[in-house]
Amino acid sequence: MNIGEAADASGLPAKTIRYYEEIGLIRPRRDANGYRAFAPRDVHKLAFLARARALGFSVEECRALLGLYEDETRASEDVKRLAQGHLARIDAKIGELQSLRVTLADLIEACAGDHRPDCPILADLAAGAAQGRTKGRMR
Amino acid sequence: MNIGEAADASGLPAKTIRYYEEIGLIRPRRDANGYRAFAPRDVHKLAFLARARALGFSVEECRALLGLYEDETRASEDVKRLAQGHLARIDAKIGELQSLRVTLADLIEACAGDHRPDCPILADLAAGAAQGRTKGRMR
DNA sequence: ATGATCCTTCCAGTAGATGGAAGGTCAAGC
DNA sequence: GCTTGACCTTCCATCTACTGGAAGGATCAT
What we know:
2 copies of one chain form a homodimer. Chain A has 6 helices and 2 strands.
């Protein structure tokens, strides 16, 4: 199976597959002509990686997950811990974004959005660094 | 005012300030010795940038915002449009993360997290690429 | 044989900094 | 006057996770 087929089968672009080989996530053997030859097992790993990346795991986390996946003697505890760490980061990110969202939505609402120059958004950016938030929300 | 002071005053690391100069966001003048000399106006711009970046605007959006801020004849409409675009991207990102969060939390909950190798998380990653989701949630 | 479509490697670029090396400058203290 | 240390300067490398493209070899269909 050449890289094109492996790409179709795994859902990853060929470029990405080459990159994953470069960083040592997979090691497909090579045909006599130098072409990469993907065994079903390789394609399976690629699909695993694609799914793990889609769930937001970092490439290094994916490496660890793949290692655990291939280790018959793994403890599910290790997998769970890894996933929990990732979940915690996602939650942190969501919280961060929701906080931004509130501030930004307030500012947008306060802005007339017409042809005049007066703008609470710019006013906040200019003053906000000092401390002022819209609507005087201060801690 | 040297870069160290400007950094303290604006809340941005000196490295970042140099970077912002490099990409043309600010143009502090130079003292005879080659040191950057920050006028209050420069520091104000840096603080503006720090706040805008903290709100998640991209550097290019910050450039545009700074341009609007300095343009007395701006229309608040333009600022608002920019901010609305950013808000939309934040909302999209939040949605994406929340979706990941649900899947991941389900998987984590299903995982015993003990010393045994059986693990629904790995099972999902291995099979998930095909289509299976935990709890058979399919569209 | 020829052209299209594969495949290969290698280099560069993306965003937004950050770290570090090598070296110039300045103010204080002795 | 000289050293020490805290500044400052530039330049280059590194990070994440790819992606784009150039140059060239291999394969396939006609």
